[in-house]
């Protein structure tokens, strides 16, 4: 029985990650295949080829992204984008949704942006309890007028789903910068501390008792 139990867990360790990976890939491909619905009926691959080929929607989505990126990289394309932005900002309900989403996307995907570029160690949710967080920027607007010290905007992801979390403003001196990438930090959080980066365990342990180093300005 002990050997059977050991074999069962060994099989789970091999097949569970593979099965979950295949399921996620199937979901992504199935979702992107919906892009084919924008094509006219006469151009549908099912009609032209006589059968369905999974993954053609992925190629179409990539082609659309590349085409839009190429168009918006020149002067004429930028003028068109500016005109469409101005038009969308004039529509009452669409204006609030579009402007919020665009600000977030510009912050996250801009090559010059600093959002989610630094993983830090912070005391959360009370002193003496530590967790991993991500620097998202610095306070702005009227919030900055009420914070007289050097503060940073921090996102504290939850486990095992990092898309949910908490947005907090912390003094920069209370954040310990970690020598790990954001991907490594998120992997550490998602795995509930099981999958640690190679040198992160020793580094974090030494950093808890050390003087927090100065973080680069995220402005």
Description:
- By secondary structure, the chain is α+β, with helices and mostly antiparallel strands.
- It has a domain at 118-208.
- Helix content is 49%, strand content 14%.
- A five-stranded antiparallel sheet has the order 4-3-2-1-5, with helices on one face.
- Strand 3 and strand 4 form a beta hairpin.
- Helix 1 (2-32) packs across helix 3.
- It is flat and about 65 Å long.
- Mean pLDDT is 80; it is low at 200-204.
Q: Characteristics of this structure?
A:
219 residues; alpha+beta; 5-stranded antiparallel beta sheet
Brief summary:
The chain has helices spanning about 1-30, 45-50, 55-70, 75-90, 90-110, 140-145, 180-190, 200-210, and strands at about 120-125, 130-135, 150-155, 165-170, 175. It has about 220 residues and is of the alpha+beta class.
Write the layout of secondary structure elements.
Elements: H1 2-32, H2 45-49, H3 56-72, H4 75-88, H5 92-109, E1 118-123, E2 130-137, H6 142-146, E3 151-157, E4 165-171, E5 176-177, H7 182-190, H8 200-208
Antiparallel strand pairs: 1-2, 1-5, 2-3, 3-4
Helix pairs in contact: 1-3
């Amino acid at each position: 029985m002990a050997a059977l139990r050991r074999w069962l867990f060994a099989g789970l360790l091999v097949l569970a990650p593979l099965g979950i990976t295949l399921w996620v890939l199937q979901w992504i491909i199935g979702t992107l295949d919906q892009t084919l619905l924008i094509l006219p009926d006469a151009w549908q691959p099912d009609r032209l080829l006589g059968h369905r080929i999974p993954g053609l929607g992925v190629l179409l989505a990539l082609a659309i992204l590349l085409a839009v990126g190429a168009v918006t990289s020149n002067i004429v394309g930028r003028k068109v984008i500016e005109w469409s932005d101005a038009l969308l900002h004039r529509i009452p309900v669409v204006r609030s949704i579009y402007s919020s989403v665009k600000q977030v996307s510009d912050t996250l995907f801009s090559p010059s942006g600093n959002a989610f570029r630094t993983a830090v160690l912070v005391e959360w949710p009370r002193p003496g309890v530590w967790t991993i967080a991500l620097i998202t920027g610095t306070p702005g607007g009227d919030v900055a007028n009420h914070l007289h010290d050097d503060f940073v905007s921090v996102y504290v992801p939850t486990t095992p789903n990092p898309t949910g979390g908490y947005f907090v403003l912390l003094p920069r001196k209370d954040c310990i910068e970690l020598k790990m990438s954001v991907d490594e930090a998120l992997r550490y959080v998602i795995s509930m501390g099981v999958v640690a980066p190679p040198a992160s365990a020793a580094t974090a342990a030494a950093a808890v008792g050390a003087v927090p180093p100065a973080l680069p300005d995220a402005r």
